Amino acid sequence: MMMIFSNTTPIIALSRINQLNLLPTLFNEINVVEEVVEECAEGGKIIVPDLTQSRLYG
């Protein structure tokens, strides 16, 4: 398994198709910087997941 760092793009894309669970299935360690968590928490035109409630963060 691999460790990855993620920006918002794969998180938004996978969330959009209800497949966010693929990241922890494929990778044993996913690192997300605070700015990505904040960007997802802000939301916008595209619905993004709240990473503070996800096992991807924390």
Task: Give the topology, please.
Blueprint: E1 3-5, H1 8-16, H2 22-26, E2 29-31, H3 34-42
Parallel strand pairs: 1-2
Number of H/I helices: 3
The neighbouring-strand order within the major sheet is 1-2
* SS strand fraction: 5-15%
Encode the helix/strand succession as letters.
EHHEH
Low-confidence parts, pLDDT < 50 over ≥5 residues? Answer: none
The count of DSSP E runs of length 2 or more, i.e. the number of strands, is: 2
Sheet having the most strands: 2 strands, parallel
Secondary structural class: alpha+beta
**End-to-end gap:** 19 Å
Domain module count: 1
Query: Overall 3D geometry?
Result: globular
- Level of helix content? 25-40%
- Give the rounded overall mean pLDDT: 82
Description:
The protein has 58 residues and is α+β, with helices and mostly antiparallel strands. The chain has one domain (3-53). It contains 3 helices and 2 strands, in the order E-H-H-E-H. It has helices at 8-16, 22-26, 34-42; strands spanning 3-5, 29-31. The chain has a two-stranded parallel sheet. The two termini are 19 Å apart.
What are its keywords?
two-stranded parallel sheet; single chain; 40% helix; 58 residues; alpha+beta; 10% strand; globular
